């Protein structure tokens, strides 16, 4: 906008005219750009500047831009610190349901907004420097203005200002700011991981000793009379465990740990237990058996296995009936299970007991004889007290178990049986600094007796043959008419377990189940009762004999974690560096070119409008003095230089305009002074 210098008399005349128009409640307007020397009465009376030095400093300098750059830097720094605190940690629970992504997004938005302020102001200031250096197209004003408003205008700017300029650099920043938010959103990921927590309920019991001597002694005698003599077994609890294990059709688990989260782990730990090792010895047995006819009614057979042997006698009877009926009866072995007790001197791996099974063939032969005495299957299972290192884990509710190592460190010696029964001597074992003990006097014999009574037994088959002769006299060689050549009396089993094993139940599986059940029984036994120390005068003070501590486990809970992808932060940091560089370049170029700090203000286009002509130094040669209004006197501030934005804002606050058409000027649209 250009204001011509006016005289005092003309000012008074125009003021009178203005007041006259005001008295008739009609207001006249004059175009700003056509304000002549006879229209200065339209200028309002001026007042002193309304803003103080601090405001002028903020407007004339780069206060808001520097503050925005600092705020953008602090926002990114706060984002980095916040993410660093929660990185690789469980997802935090923030009040009001605020998530870490929300905080990062807020800080990122603040950093982007303030950086946009810096880039927009710097690019707007570069507009004035662009026109200060040399004559440009007036169209460039609009191009710069569009570029400072968004990415589309910034893209158009490259076609007009070239690539190698600060203005192009500012346009590039405006374009790159489009990727600021997507990069911030890629910063945080929330993978699901297991959190390990020590939970007292996830412990697994173990044992270093097997000693039920006190319990067995309490139940072994009644009024000092040994109950074994009455046929009563004192080992009722052990016997129940053995029977349950042997009769289980499915394989028993080694461990049934409690895991509240369905995902738990335990360290590898040793524990005392019972081990069963079975071996198929059928080829050996088929080569090492024999049968001999002892008399007309019996056959004696001996079956040898690698560590044990078994003797069996077949009985057969024949009767000639007077009415020419020939009777033949027989009983033969189909399966037998027996127990053998071993000394460590005769068995190398400290086995105290061997359970053997042998089954014979029938070979589809009806008549008993050598064809039905042959071995069909033979198995030996050795039982030993052992120390096993267990590896237990629960994954998705499924127990995974592995026996890492098995050691059998207890040499056993069988003592001669007496009225109380059989007993052993089992020496203690020290493994890895831990002492393991087994009571061989009562506890181990009770276990062996329960296993023997449960598993031993046999299955036999009865056989009957009746033959009717053709005549009462001596029959011809082939003159036999057989009405009932075979009458099978069926199988006879000493126990349901023997019948089940003969019918197809796994003998090896039964022994494995017995070993697992007994091992679990040993681990579940209560710790020895505490006893008061002899030297302690306080009877309430108790101590307990050493017992195996329970093995604590870790309960793993699937938890969402915060994982920061730091590489995605490089782009926002790079944009901030570009913004600071652009601001520094704008400040430097402004100072070097001597241009006022006008930035994005639109007032300079009105107060410093187009001159009549421009010289090489950028100064108007003809027409009005741009930006000058001389003092009008009569109390008004008149015309004065308004070069800075704050000065123009003060003057603009006193001028009222509206948009309208100018009569007599082809009806063009202009801002009209009131």
TrEMBL record:
Segments of skewed composition (Polar residues): 1-10
UniProt KW keywords: Membrane, Transmembrane, Transmembrane helix
Transmembrane segments: 61-83, 103-131, 152-180, 566-588
Pfam families from the UniProt entry: DUF3176
Bias-annotated ranges (Basic and acidic residues): 11-24
Biased composition (Pro residues): 527-536
InterPro entries (UniProt xref): DUF3176 (IPR021514)
Region spans: Disordered: 1-27, 467-486, 523-550, 617-636
Superkingdom of the organism of origin: Eukaryota
Protein name: Uncharacterized protein
Biological source species: Aulographum hederae CBS 113979
